UniProtKB/TrEMBL annotation:
<feature type="transmembrane region" description="Helical">
    <location>
        <begin position="113"/>
        <end position="132"/>
    </location>
</feature>
<dbReference type="Pfam" id="PF07690">
    <property type="entry name" value="MFS_1"/>
</dbReference>
<feature type="transmembrane region" description="Helical">
    <location>
        <begin position="21"/>
        <end position="45"/>
    </location>
</feature>
<feature type="transmembrane region" description="Helical">
    <location>
        <begin position="272"/>
        <end position="292"/>
    </location>
</feature>
<dbReference type="InterPro" id="IPR036259">
    <property type="entry name" value="MFS_trans_sf"/>
</dbReference>
<dbReference type="GO" id="GO:0005886">
    <property type="term" value="C:plasma membrane"/>
</dbReference>
<feature type="transmembrane region" description="Helical">
    <location>
        <begin position="392"/>
        <end position="413"/>
    </location>
</feature>
<dbReference type="GO" id="GO:0022857">
    <property type="term" value="F:transmembrane transporter activity"/>
</dbReference>
<keyword id="KW-1003">Cell membrane</keyword>
<feature type="transmembrane region" description="Helical">
    <location>
        <begin position="57"/>
        <end position="77"/>
    </location>
</feature>
<protein>
    <submittedName>
        <fullName>MFS transporter</fullName>
    </submittedName>
</protein>
<feature type="transmembrane region" description="Helical">
    <location>
        <begin position="322"/>
        <end position="347"/>
    </location>
</feature>
<feature type="transmembrane region" description="Helical">
    <location>
        <begin position="299"/>
        <end position="316"/>
    </location>
</feature>
<feature type="transmembrane region" description="Helical">
    <location>
        <begin position="153"/>
        <end position="175"/>
    </location>
</feature>
<feature type="transmembrane region" description="Helical">
    <location>
        <begin position="181"/>
        <end position="199"/>
    </location>
</feature>
<feature type="transmembrane region" description="Helical">
    <location>
        <begin position="368"/>
        <end position="386"/>
    </location>
</feature>
<keyword id="KW-1133">Transmembrane helix</keyword>
C-alpha cells in the first residue's frame, strides 16, 4: 500500500517541480541555442569573411541533408538505447567539432569553404541524433496528461533559443574573434552533454529492450516505416506535417523578405519586424498551448488551426501595410505551435513506446525533407514571373482543402484525443 501511495505521489509531480523535466528543458535550450549560434557564425563567416555568398548554399545543404539522414538513424537508435546517452553523445560530439573548428581558425589565416562543408556534414550527422531521443524521452519523464504542456514549454523555449542565438552570436562576434565564440559554443554543448546524463526516469519497458536490441538495425528501421504507415492515425499525422511544411515553408517563410521588399516596399528594419513578429507569435502560441493544456480532440483542434493558417496566409497575401502585415504574421505564428504541439503529443500518446523514437524521426524527417523542395518550387514559380503574393494566395487553398478532406476521410483524426 505504501508503495502504491509513493507511486501516486511520483506521477503527480508538477512539471515545475520535476527535476528531470527541468533538466531536459535546460539541456534542450542550451543545445538549441548552441546550434543557432553555430549556424549564424558559419553563415556569417562564409558571406562576410570569405565573400562566397553563392557557396553558402553548399554548406547549408551539407548540414541539413546529413541532419535529415541522421534523424532517421537516430529514431532507431533512440528506441534501442538509453536516450540520455545518445543525447549526451550528440552534444559532446558537436562540442568536439566546434572546438576543432575553433582551433583551425587560430592556426589558419583563412578557413577554406571545403573545410566548413566537411565540418557542417559531421555537425549535421551528430546533431540529428538529439531530437529523436529527446522526443522519445519526453513520455518517460512526464505523465501522459502533461505531454501537451511539456511539449509547449519545450517548443516555446526552443523558439526563443533559435531567435536569440543569432542575436547573441552577432553581438559576440563584434567583440571577440571567431575562435573565441566557437569555444564558448563548445562549452555550452559540453554543459548540455553532461547535464543530460543526470535526467532520471523509471523505464517501464526495460524487459522489452533486450528483444528490441536483438533485431537488426535494418529490421527496426523497416518496422518503424511499416508501423507508422499501417496506423491510420499516425499515417494521417505524417501526411499533415508534410502538407503544412510544403505549402508554408516556401511561399511564406522564403517569401517573407521578397514580400516585404517587393509588395510592402519595406526596408531591412521592416523585414526584421515581420520576421520577429512571426517568432514572437510562435513563442506566444507555445505559452497559450501550455496554459490551455488541451487533452481532448487534439486531432480536430489541429485541423481547425491548419485551416486558420490557410485563411491567415490568404489574408496576409493581400495586405499592403507593414503594421497590418506584422499583426497577421503574429497570428499565423501563434497558430504554428498550436498545430505542431498537439500533433507531437498525439504521437507520443498513441505510438507504441518502443517505437516513439522511430515514429517521431520519420515524421520530422518527412516534413523537413520537403522544405528544400518547397523552396525549389517557389523559386521556379518566381522565376516564371509569378508574384509572391499570388503564390501565397494559391498555397492557402491546398491547406484549407487538405483540412476538409482529412476531416471527412480520416474520422479517427478528428476524434483522437
Amino acid at each position: 500500500m505504501e508503495s502504491v501511495k509513493q507511486l501516486k505521489r511520483e506521477v503527480t509531480v508538477p512539471l515545475s517541480k520535476s527535476n528531470s523535466f527541468i533538466l531536459l528543458w535546460f539541456t534542450t535550450v542550451v543545445s538549441s541555442l548552441s546550434l543557432s549560434m553555430f549556424m549564424f557564425i558559419q553563415s556569417w563567416y562564409v558571406v562576410e569573411s570569405l565573400g562566397m555568398e553563392a557557396s553558402l548554399g553548399i554548406v547549408l545543404v551539407c548540414l541539413t541533408t546529413m541532419r535529415m539522414v541522421s534523424m532517421v538513424i537516430g529514431g532507431v537508435v533512440a528506441d534501442r538505447s538509453r536516450q540520455t546517452k545518445i543525447m549526451s553523445f550528440s552534444d559532446l560530439s558537436l562540442a568536439c567539432l566546434v572546438i576543432i573548428l575553433a582551433g583551425l581558425f587560430v592556426l589558419l589565416p583563412e578557413v577554406p569553404i571545403w573545410v566548413l562543408a566537411i565540418n557542417a556534414t559531421f555537425f549535421g550527422a551528430c546533431g540529428g541524433l538529439f531530437e529523436p531521443s529527446r522526443d522519445a524521452l519526453i513520455p518517460k519523464v512526464v505523465r501522459e496528461n502533461q505531454l501537451t504542456r511539456a511539449n509547449s514549454l519545450l517548443q516555446g523555449a526552443i523558439q526563443i533559443a533559435l531567435f536569440t542565438g543569432p542575436l547573441l552570436a552577432g553581438i559576440l562576434i563584434n567583440i571577440f574573434s571567431y575562435s573565441t565564440v566557437l569555444i564558448l559554443i563548445g562549452l555550452f554543448l559540453i554543459i548540455s552533454g553532461i547535464g543530460v546524463l543526470f535526467i532520471k526516469w523509471t523505464d517501464k519497458h526495460q524487459n522489452k529492450q533486450g528483444k528490441i536490441n536483438q533485431q537488426s538495425f535494418k529490421v527496426q528501421l523497416r518496422e518503424g516505416f511499416t508501423y507508422t504507415w499501417n496506423s491510420s492515425l499516425l499515417r494521417a499525422l505524417f501526411i499533415i506535417t508534410i502538407i503544412v511544411n510544403f505549402f508554408i515553408s516556401g511561399p511564406l517563410m522564403m517569401g517573407l523578405p521578397i514580400f516585404v521588399e517587393g509588395v510592402l516596399n519595406g526596408s531591412s528594419v521592416d523585414f526584421s519586424f515581420v520576421q520577429g513578429g512571426f517568432t514572437f507569435g510562435m513563442v506566444l502560441g507555445s505559452v497559450l498551448i501550455g496554459v490551455l493544456n488541451i487533452q481532448r480532440k487534439r486531432g480536430a483542434y489541429a485541423l481547425y488551426l491548419i485551416g486558420l493558417q490557410g485563411v491567415g496566409m490568404l489574408i496576409f497575401s493581400q495586405v499592403n501595410s507593414i503594421v497590418v502585415a506584422v499583426s497577421i504574421i503574429i497570428f499565423i505564428g501563434m497558430l504554428n505551435p498550436g498545430v505542431n504541439i498537439p500533433l507531437i503529443s498525439l504521437v507520443q500518446s498513441y505510438a507504441n513506446q518502443e517505437k516513439v523514437g522511430r515514429v517521431m524521426s520519420l515524421i520530422r524527417t518527412g516534413s523537413l525533407g520537403l522544405i528544400p523542395l518547397s523552396y525549389a518550387v517557389t523559386s521556379i514559380f518566381l522565376g516564371m514571373g509569378i508574384k509572391i503574393q499570388t503564390l501565397m494566395a494559391w498555397s492557402s487553398f491546398p491547406l484549407i482543402l487538405s483540412v476538409v478532406l482529412l476531416f471527412f476521410l480520416n474520422p479517427i483524426l478528428r476524434t483522437a484525443d
